[in-house]
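TICKET: design request
STATUS: open
ATTACHED STRUCTURE:
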């Protein structure tokens, strides 16, 4: 019984870390993967580096976006979910 009481603070600390750090991160990663899977030609997007454009072509892991200066090939993971959502709300 005394051994369980010694480890109880560590167990509680792990539970708190799980619910406040690990679980939200996993949920966010799942949302980002779903966002990347839901992209379609014609969607307006913003990349994580701040480039604005419209999706011209989709491949499995890459996209081609059309910007005012031409077309650029980028990784799907380079698209910012938050900034693209904010752009499409306007």
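STATUS: resolved
RESOLUTION: sequence designed for all positions
ATTACHED SEQUENCE:
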């Amino acid at each position: 019984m005394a051994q369980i009481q010694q480890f109880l603070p560590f167990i509680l600390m792990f539970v708190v870390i799980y619910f406040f750090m690990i679980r939200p991160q996993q949920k966010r990663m799942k949302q980002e993967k779903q966002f990347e899977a839901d992209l379609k030609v014609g969607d307006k997007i913003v990349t994580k580096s701040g480039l604005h454009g419209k999706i011209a072509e989709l491949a499995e892991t890459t996209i081609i976006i059309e910007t005012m200066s031409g077309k650029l090939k980028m990784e799907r993971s380079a698209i910012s979910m938050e900034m693209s959502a904010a752009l499409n709300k306007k």
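CLOSING REMARK: The mean pLDDT is 91. The chain is about 50% helix and 25% strand.
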